[in-house]
Amino acid sequence: MQHAMSQSKSIQRDGSIFQQKIIPCLWFDHQAEEAANFYTSIFKNSGITKVTRYLKATETVSGKPTGSVMTVEFQLDGYEVIALNGGPQYSFSPAISFVKNCETKEETDAVWEKLCQGGMVLMELGAYPFSEKFGWVQDRFGISWQVNYGPGRQTVAPCLLFNGQQSGKAQEAIEFYTSLFKDSEILKMERYGINDTGAEGAIKHALFSLNGQKFSAMDSNLEHAFTFTPAVSLHVNCETQDEVDRLWERFTQGGEAEACGWLKDRYGVSWQIVPAILNQLLNDSNSEQAERVVKAMLEMVKLDIQTLKQAYEQ
Q1: pLDDT averaged over consecutive 10-residue blocks of the chain (314 residues)?
Q2: For the chain, which residues make up each domain, given as ranges?
Q3: What pLDDT is attached to residue 239?
Q4: Which long-range contacts (CB under 8 A, 24 or more apart) does 198-204 make?
Q5: Are the C-beta atoms of residues 23 and 234 closer than 8 Å to each other?
Q6: Can you tell me the distance from the alpha carbon of 301 to that of 314, in angstroms, rounded to the nearest whole number?
Q7: CB atoms within 10 A of CB 72
Q8: Each residue of 96-125: b (16+ CB within 10 Å) or e?
């Protein structure tokens, strides 16, 4: 059920190389390949980069047969995403959506049309005070997309919606997240006014960066029948055990430690704190070594690099 991915490099629109440290992971029942093929057929400069399969050691825990697809790594216009076949436990919700910024109005129309096929429109595509052309849709798999005409911006960016018990906590969460990662900053923070539909002073729209990656966030005091769910988690590649330890300690303060590097933070957002070397250990051609590493990982809550290496070297 759990997995690890190598650190990835993507080409930005200005031609520079960008190291994507935080990779969204989408939890499907069994549709990871289907979804990855669907998304990469829609967005330009996209493709599947890697497929991993379940090992024997994970069969009991995951309920998935050995050799079946576990994860699919893919790029959407240079932005890395992971799709996981984890089982039917979780469902997607609009609490975490993805903003797709398009270079032209024609691209905006084309992406919108394809994402709407078999999906459900949440906000019609059209002109709004904040955008010449924008629409919000939940696609056929249940993932929410904010399709926007936004030339020159990061092509894909997660958006966190703080509602229900988390309503009004967007600013606090942003300040917390930006304190954890280097090269992070708050770029924009727009608040609800007295005549807006949201609570006065709450975050209407915020833009921030974590390790150079753009994210956005919003508060909502409306009654929504959804909240954050592990169906969308944020996978963090860590270079050292010190980094794993530091992030784990900070994220679990007021949060909830789970298993195999997974946790929920104090706001209910799911993260995976994973040493980057784990991908190398699991990719070895010797399946017995990979099986030993997986068995060791399944016994862990916070991942420990030395223990994983020892399992590999037995």
Answers
A1: 39 50 97 98 94 86 88 95 96 97 97 98 96 97 97 94 95 98 96 88 96 96 89 97 98 97 98 93 79 92 96 89
A2: 8-91+230-313, 96-219
A3: 94
A4: 199/167, 199/168, 202/167, 202/168, 202/170, 203/162, 203/170, 203/171, 203/174
A5: yes
A6: 21
A7: 24
A8: bbbbbbbbeeebbbbbbebbbeebeeeeeb
* pLDDT for position 59: 79
CATH architecture, domain defined by 96-219: 2-Layer Sandwich (3.30)
User: Contact, 31 vs 87, CB < 8 A?
Assistant: no
Tokens for 194? 């007295």
| Rounded-to-integer distance, Cα 190 and Cα 206, Å | 6
Is the Cβ–Cβ distance between 270 and 230 less than 8 Å?
yes
How far is 123 from 121, CA to CA, in rounded Å?
A: 6
Q: For residue 74, give the nearest of 139, 23, 31 by alpha carbon.
A: 23
8-91+230-313: CATH topology: 2,3-Dihydroxybiphenyl 1,2-Dioxygenase; domain 1 (3.10.180)
Angle at 228 between CA 224 and CA 233, to 5 degrees: 150
Residue 125 C-alpha from the chain's centroid: 24
The reported pLDDT for the residue numbered 148 is 97
pTM above 0.85, yes or no: yes
